[in-house]
Specification:
Layout (H helix, E strand, L loop, with lengths): L2 E5 L2 E4 L4 E8 L6 E8 L6 E6 L6 E3 L7 E6 L4 E6 L8 E9 L12 E2 L3 E6 L1
Parallel strand pairs: 2-11
Antiparallel strand pairs: 1-3, 3-8, 4-5, 4-9, 5-6, 7-8, 9-10, 9-11
């Protein structure tokens, strides 16, 4: 059974950087597309970034383009979300999600494996 564990969240100030990690276990890392979603209080869960199963393709929400970078480390079976120039509106619980041989969907319904989430709070 594939399991995802996020880490790296915290409280930072606007303009700071933070790196989130999503450790994948129980499956072959290189066969899963992994995406990041986030959910702020009172708002719906929204797409942030995705890395395709082979790592060749990535996609970002317009709100984070140029500030966030998604990457993967096959040796560590981990996907990272490097977040720079953070803004208060980035405050949310960040979730990683995975799907077998996913091509990079931005829809949450495409993913059937989810982590527990990690809180990111950006103060102004």
């Amino acid at each position: 059974q594939v399991r995802l564990v996020e880490s790296g969240g915290g409280l930072v100030q606007a303009g700071d950087s933070l790196r989130l990690s999503c450790a994948v276990s129980g499956g072959i890392f290189s066969t899963y597309a992994v995406a990041w979603f986030r959910q702020a209080p009172g708002k719906e869960r929204e797409f942030v970034a995705v890395r395709s199963w082979n790592g060749y393709n990535s996609n970002y929400a317009d709100s984070v383009k140029g500030r966030f970078t998604i990457s993967g480390d096959n040796a560590k079976s981990t996907v990272y979300l490097q977040m720079s120039n953070l803004k208060p509106e980035d405050t949310a619980v960040y979730y990683c999600a995975a799907v077998y041989y996913g091509g990079g969907s931005i829809s949450a319904t495409s993913y059937d494996i989810w982590g527990q989430g990690t809180q990111v709070t950006v103060s102004s």
